[in-house]
Amino acid sequence: MRPLSWSRTVPRELVHRLSVAEVLLTDVRRAGRGSFMAAAQWPLSHPTFPRGGTGAHNPLMIVETLRQLGIYIPLRYYATSPRSHFLITDVSYELDPAAEPLVQYGATEVTCLVEMDGLRRAAVSGALSAIRMRARFLAGGRLFAQARGGAQILDAEHYAALRQPPPCLDGRPPALSAVLRPPPASLGVAAPQDVMLVVARDGVRVDPADPRHPYFFDHDSDHVPGVTLMEAARQAVAAQSEGRLRRPVGCSLRALRFTEFSPPAAVECTAYGMTCVFRIRQGAGLTAAGVLRYAGPDC
């Protein structure tokens, strides 16, 4: 098998991105039954994910790379229809701060070792209907992170049937009284448009400052994406800890049902030392839950 290439990105439509600048994958190769090797390039400068004070990349780059792999591999190697909808059921990552690459000159070349399992197919059509994926991330031959995730894959007809709006969430969003957007610096983000939440009298709510954010809403969506919920939870912990906990070294999220844009979902965080449990609630139900883990304050 010829060496991986970092020379050019894969087609943007194969990772569900409109902007070429947001495509991270440059090459993906089959390495065995259910196994793949991939190349990703993490940019020196990213408008949404600025480098930390140590020169480290934002951990969400791990999640985004896994998300792109979870779309590209089924479309390229498993004959999945381009019109399919990919719904994240769960996603997690673990990062080793002592091994992670620091930004040098240009972009960081990342090698991904991917294992596919838990593949399910529709009984009638035989089309792929669910996947599970595990990926290990290396830079300079050194392992620095692992990530896992699962997704459902639905055709347009089944997705449309699933997206019938729940009666309790169908309507105009209630007015949020006495809302406040935390300062971007306190959340570890670069600009006001990167803030994903507001603080109201009744708690913290998911309310992206920019509904056309170039990363979180690169393309139209009829629900709040899972990666956006993960970032909103991270920001909620940063706000609750008054900026002490901003950069998690581990995170897991499980999506229980769709999180709608209206009314704004509530984010609840409970800290246990360097570990924070979060829950996303909307209406009377829980839509997502997870855990954020930190190596220490100001990390």
Sequence-ordered SSE layout with sheet pairings:
Blueprint: E1 25-32, E2 35-42, H1 60-77, E3 85-95, E4 108-121, E5 128-139, E6 142-154, H2 156-162, H3 184-187, E7 197-200, E8 203-206, H4 226-240, E9 250-255, E10 266-272, E11 275-282, E12 285-293
Antiparallel strand pairs: 1-2, 2-4, 3-6, 3-9, 4-5, 5-6, 7-8, 8-10, 9-12, 10-11, 11-12
List keywords for this structure.
4 helices; 299 residues; twelve-stranded antiparallel sheet; single chain; 15% helix; globular; alpha+beta
Description:
The protein is α+β, with helices and mostly antiparallel strands and 299 residues long. Helix content is 15%, strand content 35%. The protein is built from four helices and twelve strands, in the order E-E-H-E-E-E-E-H-H-E-E-H-E-E-E-E. It has a twelve-stranded antiparallel β-sheet. It starts with 24 loop residues before the first strand and ends in a 6-residue tail after the last strand. The model is unreliable at 170-175 (pLDDT under 50).
